[in-house]
Give the backbone structure.
Amino acid sequence: MSLFVEVDSIEKDCKVIINLDGIGEIAPLSAGGCALFLLQGGVIKVKNSYDDFKQFAMQTVSSADIAKQVKALKGSVKNLEIPTL
């Protein structure tokens, strides 16, 4: 099932509908808006805020979240025995 959203294209200066299935990365622009990097190559620049797209993320993960997971894994791996063949 595809997910389509309406965005404000900077290049076309109008609203366009995009298929988020074709987007590999969304990055905020320092001048405002976002760059949507297509999986097939190319970039679409939009006026929409980065926060507008965060709602589509299943879960956002920070470096602190990753550090917590690694710390938890280290604790559970201490007594791991590696079998010999």
About this structure: The chain has one domain: 4-77. The mean pLDDT is 86. Strands lie at 4-9, 14-19, 23-28, 34-38, 43-46. The two ends are 46 Å apart (CA to CA).
